[in-house]
Amino acid sequence: MLIVADENIPLLDQFFEEIGTIRRVSGRTMTSADVRDADVLLVRSVTRVDRQLLEDSRVKFVGTATIGTDHVDVAWLESQGIAFACAPGCNAASVVDYVLSVLSVYAEKRAMEGWTDLSVGIVGAGNVGRRLATRLDKLGFDIKVNDPPREAEEPDEGFDSLEDALGCDVVTLHTPLTRYGNHPTRHLMNAERLRRLNPSQLLINTSRGGVVDCEALSSRLADADAPQVVLDVWEGEPQVSAELASRVWLMTPHIAGYSLEGKVGGTEMIYQSLCHFLGLPVRKKSGQFMADPALSKLSFTSSANARDAAQLAIRACYDVRRDDSRFRRWVLELPEGERAAAFDAMRRDYPVRREFSSTKIQLKGGAKELQQVFKALEFKLKL
Ligand SMILES: NC(=O)c1ccc[n+]([C@@H]2O[C@H](COP(=O)([O-])OP(=O)(O)OC[C@H]3O[C@@H](n4cnc5c(N)ncnc54)[C@H](O)[C@@H]3O)[C@@H](O)[C@H]2O)c1
Ligand SMILES: O=C(O)[C@H](O)[C@H](O)COP(=O)(O)O
């Protein structure tokens, strides 16, 4: 059995070598010639999987080690009887950590007494948005959650209108990129909605670049009363508009979900689906391959203030400003023609990042408030 796989899927050998021969190819430039003799195709988000790629092949199973599936023509696969698996939720905690890191830095930028004074509008409450809402709610943030598709299914859940979510101090997008259906999200943040955001608001996009009309965003950000913006995803990436980037507060190259747990978890989920498809036993678990985190423990004494301790722990685990400064140095400072390759290289060579849940927090005589904050942030508590 021949397995053609994106070379950037971690632990390919460890998970798949017992199942078949692995051919590694570049996900970004994969062609139909690369997959013609394949039985199984494993991708990440940078490969367009459709008729053009697969119609001359004998592929019977496609797995994407990602949450997003907008790069896959799922309807066409179904029409051809090709099995499909993705990795729902695999890196959701990583994206939530990213957003919390942004919020911690933003509250400081605004010289706020307490970060929970920020109201947060969450647009899209699936694996990522729902987990973010849970953590923010436990921390005491005022949140508005908008999700029309879920609201249609769960009318009693108390979802908020898009209007209300867009009125919050921070608006964070967690929808898939969709073009059709009752609630398409492409350019959900269009010129008109962007115009309604004011300078004391922050827009965060970690969903897909196309959920925001990036041309409209670039011109909106040139206005004197522009909102602040954090972008992890870019319409047309790996190309990044230098004009847009120069107007964005924090920027990263689509790495919000790049925790080690998230990446390895994605591989594990498609491995499990492939085993199921082939009727094979599931022998491998991601835990077998995870090294101890570099930062295993943080200790706080009873004199620690809950807010300061939380900020310190968040930033010790993941400080989004480091990725922002690398992005500026390694991608934006290059000539335009070299930026797309640098964007991909920064993703390929991304350093090991661990989720908050991998770090133990030791509280020596810690107050109840400290315990609650760290629990809400999903650190491991050690009393
Ligand atoms: N930047 C990254 O590294 C990264 C990592 C993981 C996921 N993502 C992206 O984030 C998206 C969200 O991830 P997820 O795991 O939560 O997906 P999900 O499918 O679990 O949830 C998406 C939610 O959005 C809702 N939704 C759909 N259309 C909507 C609309 N018009 N308005 C409001 N809500 C709408 C859905 O009902 C669903 O509840 C993914 O599709 C993926 O594209 C990015
Ligand atoms: O959809 C996802 O899971 C994320 O966007 C993921 O982080 C994408 O990473 P990529 O496949 O581009 O490496």
TrEMBL record:
Name listed for the protein in its UniProt record: Erythronate-4-phosphate dehydrogenase
Pathway(s) served: Cofactor biosynthesis; pyridoxine 5'-phosphate biosynthesis; pyridoxine 5'-phosphate from D-erythrose 4-phosphate: step 2/5
EC number of the protein: 1.1.1.290
Origin superkingdom: Bacteria
One GO BP: pyridoxine biosynthetic process
Keywords assigned: Cytoplasm, NAD, Oxidoreductase, Pyridoxine biosynthesis
All residue ranges annotated as the Erythronate-4-phosphate dehydrogenase dimerisation domain in the record: 290-374
Classification via Pfam families: 2-Hacid_dh, 2-Hacid_dh_C, DUF3410
